[in-house]
Prior knowledge:
70% of the residues lie in helices and 3% in strands. It has four helices and two strands, in the order ββαααα. It has helices spanning 8-27, 38-50, 60-75, 86-123; strands spanning 2-3, 6-7. The mean pLDDT is 93. Pfam families: zf-TAZ. One of its GO terms (cellular component) is histone acetyltransferase complex. This is histone acetyltransferase.
Amino acid sequence: xxxxxxxxxxxxxxxxxxxxxxxxxxxxxxxxxxxxxxxxxxxxxxxxxxxxxxxxxxxxxxxxxxxxxxxxxxxxxxxxxxxxxxxxxxxxxxxxxxxxxxxxxxxxxxxxxxxxxxxxxxxx
Length: 124
């Protein structure tokens, strides 16, 4: 499968590398790290701490960083993860899932109630 001429494997490989870089940069304390693009990601972390526009205001750098942070949080299994906002995002995703589950349960219960009412009406 291709998206704009780029294979899905290439995109997935790139995303995997970006997420690995995100984890590395969040733990790296070296000022002269040789890990490819580590300094760029550290710069994005700094940008995010000081940006007044933010992703909600349309900052492209912040939007890119939030996208990567959200992707990371969805896949992260570490309870003590050092990636910025990981725990917050995981908690937010957990709450969204709980809300979705509650709505689904309520819909099933309502459907069962309606069917029971139909059966009772048809039997009487």
